[in-house]
């Protein structure tokens, strides 16, 4: 594993571990911080000519410091999609600051996130008798927007569109469990 991947995984693991310890912390405004974990599925939109867009699946976790601001870490991978008689797949690791705006009396909320994502795209295809393997790895400023619905205080569903850099976008739907 590369150093950045290890760092992102360590930050994500540390964030998730500290969430449990901080879950009972009161911030003096009547709000107690809230950790959450979730899963998502969707589709990568890769800027690669002739490639099908791979199906994405991922997990994420975060912590809301108050009703509006929080942090989130995620991993999203993909299946193999067709590309020039071979295949292409993608994965991304990200760490974000988040902002939520709750629409009054509806359960709906808008979500924005901004942070850093490492995106890796790997392809294998044939050129005549030769098998060609390519890999593209970029770390970029990344962000996203989404719309969510809180089914109850402990469970919500979200739809998101994430911009991961110059060569990849991600559209997902997911569900999260809050603690």
* Order of neighbouring strands in the sheet with most strands: 1-2-3-5-6-7-8-9
Residue fraction in strands: over 45%
From the helix content, strand content and strand pairing, which structural class follows?
Answer: mainly beta
| CATH second-level architecture | Beta Barrel
- The low-pLDDT segments are 13-28
**Head-to-tail CA distance between termini:** 31 Å
Oligomer: single chain
Helix content: 10-25%
User: What's the order of the H and E elements?
Assistant: HEEEEEEEEE
Mean pLDDT: 86
Count of separate structural domains? 1
Gross morphology: elongated
Task: Describe what you observe in this structure.
- This protein is mainly β.
- The protein has one domain (3-178): Porin (Beta Barrel).
- It has 1 helix and 9 strands, in the order αβββββββββ.
- It has one helix spanning 3-22; strands at residues 34-46, 55-64, 69-78, 81-83, 86-102, 108-127, 130-152, 155-163, 168-178.
- It has an 8-stranded antiparallel beta barrel.
- Strand 6 and strand 7 form a beta hairpin.
- The chain is elongated, with a radius of gyration of 18 Å.
- The relative contact order is 0.20.
- Mean pLDDT is 86; it is low at 13-28.
